[in-house]
Amino acid sequence: MKKKINLLCLLILFLAWQAGTFAQESAGKLFQVKGFCISAPQPKGVDRFVKFINEELAPRGINTLLVLVDYNYQFESYPQLSDSGALSKTDVKKIVAACRKNNIKIIPQINMLGHQSGGNKLNSLLTNFPQFDETPYIKMPEKYVWPNSDELYCKSYCPLHPDLHKVLFALIDEICDAYESPAFHAGMDEVFYLGDTKCPRCKGVDKAELFAGEVTRLRNHLAEKNRELWIWGDRLIDGKTTGLGFWEASYNYTYRAIDMISKDIVICDWHYERPDQTPVYFAMKGFRVITCPWRTVQTAIIQTEDMAKFIKYATPEMKPRYYGMMETTWMGADGFIDGFYGIRKYYSDDITNPEKKLLNPWDTFRAMSKRMDELTKEYK
What we know:
single chain; 380 residues; alpha/beta; TIM Barrel; eight-stranded parallel barrel; two-stranded antiparallel sheet; 40% helix; 13% strand
């Protein structure tokens, strides 16, 4: 009898310890994703970037690094697409090693569909494969201005071109292998050219179906290698109904694609000036959603508090869909690190504008990280 009592006591103690451990783990995972998004460094900046990962990202508990790669890599599958002075595999492996040491998941991004040009220049894909251009009749201007008569923001590729995905899939596989990544970010934001009336393949096709079809092709290819697809969320929001406009949401009806794509896609939901409540929309549609601030400190703090509240008060079904937070920087790695350490004083070159002096991603990153830590302790 005494042995049975002792065993029962040990079992109770074990279960209590296990429950306590589970509670600690759950508290530590209030935000499943504590993310940071930045452009891949230039080769000369790799060691400095690795140092930043070790000394700044890791101590803040960052567990996800979204690296905006595009063509800053020495591709073997299509070497003509690589930027001049692109990162080598050796450079990338330094970043991978630092992240592995600090339990940080890396997710590389190459812009898919939209963002196939910038300013007055085509990017590498359309430069080398002009046949993929959705709007070849719209020529790049000598000097880019917005707005313009062509409504040109960025070029898009035609998602129905029969030779397109052989190229895209090779690039995606190669970059995911190089970064040893379990996921790939396809961008897919701010797509304005889609289903053009002069495109011989997709004119007259429903734009939501075109968008959803491309998302699905990418998602299915990644799933073959047990990788996830991540995308920005703006094209899945109705811009007119919500009043969010055509930058943060869609005016060309792609928002209906939200009901046509797989629920295992991760949505990165960006709003930079206001803490809009769209994470609830994505979570209710069945997606995991990450809120992404940029350069406005107060907005980022509110967004972080909102995400914590969504998690705390959600149903068991909804709770895991509120996936976390990710700071976006939208600048080169060296420029951000300079700003972070006070070498660069302002985000904007227009230092005569007092408002722009206060807007920067490094102070926003510090504020978001600090608030995440505070809320994790508060909600234990």
